[in-house]
Design a protein that fits this description.
about 450 residues, Glycerol-3-phosphate (1)-acyltransferase, alpha/beta, 2 domains
């Protein structure tokens, strides 16, 4: 069907749905099983009273970002999703049931794109008037780099339309969210989600036109996101600066430690116009590459200095065989999902496939296997507690599968730290690493050089 024959979509006006309520726990468990949630901060800043809210977040990891936010944020969230996934009637009903709304892009080549999007904006405003929570990525698209890019006009335009249509929507709250991944395609690598202070915007409304000042709002959103997410600047030197930021271990920093690391990143950003320093950073980085540094290296294991080496976790090594036994009901599913996910060419969608499929594959497969175990127990009449043999075996197997998989993931995360400790000791103490170590020390010295 050509685009000119596509129907004009009008999503329902709603604040919450039962399907979203019932399956949010699956998203939350999927995120927690795949990622290592080391920093979930400032959720006390979420308004206690019911208010219309727009969450704004940086966008690094394709479809994984909205899954994480939807799973970890308590209010049901409403999302704008590219329109081409709505054309199948059945899929459209499912997406509507999960608070999704289509948004039309220039690449969709609709002659009436403005009229179509006006309907969607009206839908957003009516949902907000019901005190719904909308979630947006104001950068407009995703980028795997740890940067905060320029804002698109969507947020300011939506606010302007909202105020024009319902003046009491000035009570709407804009809450920033900062996402950061240690290694986003990697299983059980660290993930942080930070909530920032409410962004003031009422003073940006023009008294006559009721338009919200796009430029000033964008600056405020960027400034707010930079307090809760990593923004490496200058962006033209990203490749040269990212090893230093990784060595800072920003994805596991909390409270005052996080603030100090953001201050350090801001200090580096102030040298954007210092051409001599930028050239020196490039030179020492190139030396690093010449002696063996690559994106696959682990500056997180080295740290900024020798004293940053992690502590070994021998207990995790000793418990690993038990963790493997606990993960037996899931090992085949996990292997197949990893194998399929690693074939996805776009790195930013690998974890999305693994987590998204795992949300359903794991519990469904556990249920089937538990039913088989229960049936065998019922046939043999095996009962330990004097109740239904089927029920006993079913619950026992399900508990083994779900808690065993969780225990395996927990141990795997700590094994990464143990391996980092070994790598850190080797890096700082073994003679064969001298060339790389010397280049790293020089690189760190230049990065820490005061303005």
């Amino acid at each position: 069907m050509s685009n000119k024959n596509r129907p004009v979509l009008t999503p329902p006006i709603q604040r919450a749905t039962i399907p979203y309520f019932l399956t949010r726990v699956l998203a939350k468990q999927g995120v927690k099983r795949f990622h290592r949630l080391t920093t979930i901060e400032n959720f006390n800043k979420l308004p206690k009273e019911r208010n219309p809210i727009i969450f704004v977040s940086n966008h690094q990891n394709g479809m994984m970002d909205p899954m994480i936010i939807s799973g970890l944020i308590k209010p049901q969230l409403h999302w704008l999703t590219r329109s081409d996934v709505f054309w199948n009637p059945l899929v459209r009903k499912i997406l509507y049931a999960y608070n999704q709304m289509p948004i039309y892009r220039q690449r969709d080549r609709f002659s009436n794109i403005r009229e179509r999007n006006d309907i969607i904006w009206d839908c957003c405003i009516e949902r907000l008037d019901l005190c719904a929570a909308l979630s947006l990525f104001p950068e407009g698209n995703h980028n795997p780099q740890k940067t905060i890019r320029d804002m698109k006009r969507g947020l300011s335009d939506l606010l302007s339309l909202a105020v024009k249509k319902h003046s009491d929507l000035k009570r709407l709250k804009i809450i920033p969210l900062g996402l950061e991944y240690e290694d986003y395609p990697g299983y059980r690598r660290r993930l942080s989600l930070r909530m920032g202070d409410e962004i003031e915007w009422n003073d940006l409304i023009d008294d006559v036109t009721k338009m919200v000042d796009f430029r000033l709002l964008s600056l405020r959103v960027q400034a707010s996101l930079r307090k809760i997410a990593v923004d490496i600047r200058p962006k033209t030197s990203y490749e040269e600066i990212i090893p230093y930021v990784r060595a800072m271990r920003t994805s596991e920093a909390k409270n005052e430690v996080w603030v100090s690391k953001i201050e350090e990143i801001d200090r580096i950003a102030l040298r954007e116009n210092d051409g001599d320093w930028i050239r020196t950073v490039s030179e020492v980085y190139n030396k690093l590459v010449e002696v063996g540094y690559s994106p696959e290296s682990r500056p997180e294991a080295w740290g900024i200095a020798k004293g940053d080496v992690r502590q070994k976790k021998i207990w995790a090594v000793l418990l690993y065989p038990i963790a493997c036994l606990g993960n037996l009901p899931t090992v085949i599913q996990q292997y197949l999902l990893n194998k399929r996910g690693d074939k996805v060419k776009a790195m930013v969608f690998r974890s999305t496939l693994k987590v998204g499929a795992g949300m359903f594959v794991y519990p469904i497969s556990w249920t089937i296997l538990a039913a088989i175990a229960g049936t065998i127990a019922a046939v043999k009449g095996v009962s330990l507690l004097g109740v239904s043999p089927f029920f006993e075996a079913f619950i026992a197997f399900w508990s083994w599968a779900t808690f065993g998989n969780r225990f395996y993931g927990w141990i795997q995360g700590h094994l990464y730290d143990h391996n980092d400790a070994i790598e850190g000791e080797r890096f700082w103490n073994k003679g064969k690493s001298t060339a790389l170590r010397d280049a790293w020390i020089e690189y760190i010295a230049i990065m820490k050089q005061e303005n």
